[in-house]
Design brief:
By secondary structure, the protein is of the alpha/beta class. Helix content is 30%, strand content 25%. The chain has helices spanning 41-48, 119-139, 156-167, 179-188, 201-212, 227-230, 254-258, 274-289, 306-318; strands at 2-5, 16-19, 29-38, 65-72, 84-87, 102-106, 110-112, 147-150, 171-176, 192-195, 215-220, 234-242, 263-266, 297-302, 327-331. Helix 6 links the parallel strand 11 and strand 12 (234-242). The longest helix is centred in the middle third of the chain and has 21 residues, at 119-139. It is globular and about 60 Å long.
Amino acid sequence: MKAAYISQTGPWNQIQYGDLPTPKAGPGEVLVRVEAVAVNPIDTYIRGGIVKFELPFPWVPGCDVCGVVEEIGTNAGRFKKGDRVWGSNQGLFGRQGTFSEYCAIHEQWLYPVAENISSAEAAAGALVGITAHLGLFLHAGLRSGEVVFVNGGTGGVGSSVVQLAKAAGATVITTAGSAEKADQCRALGADHVIQYRNEDIDARFAEITAKTGPIHVWFETLRTPTLDRCVPLMAIRGRIILMAGRDARPEFPVGPFYVKDLRMIGFAMFNASPDEQRAAAEALNAFAASGAWKPQVSRVMPMSQAAEAHRLQEENTLQSSGQLSGKIILMP
């Protein structure tokens, strides 16, 4: 089969595209014929050696996948041949990733595809959708009528947070880098959008929260949070969610934080158990079936261009290039 892979960690141009043996479905696994995969920042961190795992070289990157079940391994019974499935959590903890024509994946990490979602959308929504759902509901305990803020309303996680929070009955505030992206945020369900490149962010927060009241859930997607801005805007017993910024060391306003009974919760989606991720995925399928959640695809590229896709992702993540509104999708 054709696959994108590396023989050692390093920069994006370490990625090769060529032939690797087609895997077999082992115990509890199914063999998936890949239709679409998504590129995530974590893929680039592992490939670059920033996040260190013991990797089985040649190693195939990629967390997310959508495809069709081709073979059923022993002790696997959740799916049958021909089922369309989607999932995430691959390419981690020594597992091979998804940037290949076929993947052998344990069935605990796979879910049926909602009928009204394309393969590209299903792959685009896998890691980011599960992350958004876990953050909002498992960790923050979002309730209808609350106010939610998320940075980057057209990004992978951000666009899912906007849609899911709105569908759950929240008032949603977000940010965007341009008028065009602000319009996209509103189309996704955002009630208020701050254009951070050309508006006074603090003045806009003051204006918006004068109408909405204080923020109950602050979902931070930036690698370096500004807690001195965030904490004063929070409601009593508000929840601050952190899911990015491995090297961040921001100043922490202890006094304003504790006198509001605030909670700060950090989480990584790949720490969630298979049952927790499945519950999130099933809820996402229901949101998708109702039209409340539509994963955002920024661009579609052939899998042979995986190296270029990693370069683009790094520019967007590490250099804040703003090129992406949603996920990069690769197709075999």
